[in-house]
Design a protein that fits this description.
The protein is mainly α. It has four helices and no strands. α1 packs antiparallel against α2, α1 runs antiparallel to α4 and α3 runs antiparallel to α4.
């Protein structure tokens, strides 16, 4: 913002006051326009953030639904493994499958970086924060589950080649992994509820 001296000489207090008023009005107009532009920019960031949250949470919600569909099948495979290891003549089996596709939180991180959250109503921002916090918990649990699943493979696939102690240890690991999938399911259901709340959806029956 540039300030210019009056074009003609100031000959009286009246001229001086007129000049001050003109300059003051100019400054107020410039500041008002600057604030208007900034407010529109912040509003645009907020709209972009909400659009990003909606797209991202919708996709993340579908992934959680896939997890809830897949985990019961994994537990059924674990039960088969345990039954095989408990049999008199266990045979070779493939380990239970695993489903791991990390959820996305890019829109949330972008909104944090651009401070777009400050432009949203508190309650709305709080709902989004709860949803993303729950998603991070699910992701952490699933990463631990992936580590546990990889640890199972150290026993090999042939139950007949294992000692009794190895079979017992593997059964314990399988039961622990099975319990882990149930914990993931519980966290996923909670995250889905919070996602639905953030998106303004009614909870699914």
């Amino acid at each position: 913002m540039d300030l210019h001296a009056p074009e003609g000489p100031i000959r009286s207090i009246k001229d001086f006051l007129v000049h001050i008023v003109i300059v003051t009005i100019g400054i107020l107009i410039a500041l008002g326009l600057e604030q208007l532009v900034e407010a529109r920019h912040h509003a645009h960031l907020a709209r972009q953030a909400v659009e990003g949250f909606t797209r991202e949470l919708t996709v993340d919600g579908r992934q959680l639904q896939d997890v809830l569909t897949t985990n019961p099948k994994v537990r059924a495979e674990i039960d088969e493994w345990i039954a095989n290891l408990s049999a008199a003549n266990p045979h070779e089996m493939d380990y239970p499958g695993i489903y791991f596709d990390p959820v996305s939180t890019t829109s949330w991180e972008t909104a944090m970086a651009t401070q777009a959250l400050g432009e949203l109503p508190y309650e709305q921002a709080h709902l989004y924060a709860d949803a993303y916090s729950a998603l991070r918990i699910v992701d952490d649990l699933r990463r631990r589950g992936l580590s546990d699943w990889q640890g199972l493979h150290t026993f090999g696939k042939n139950g007949a080649a294992m000692t009794a102690d190895q079979r017992r240890m593997l059964v314990e690991r399988l039961r622990s992994y099975e319990t882990g999938t149930e914990v993931i399911d519980s966290a996923a259901r909670n995250a889905l509820t919070l996602i639905q709340a953030a998106l303004g959806e009614k909870p699914h029956a």
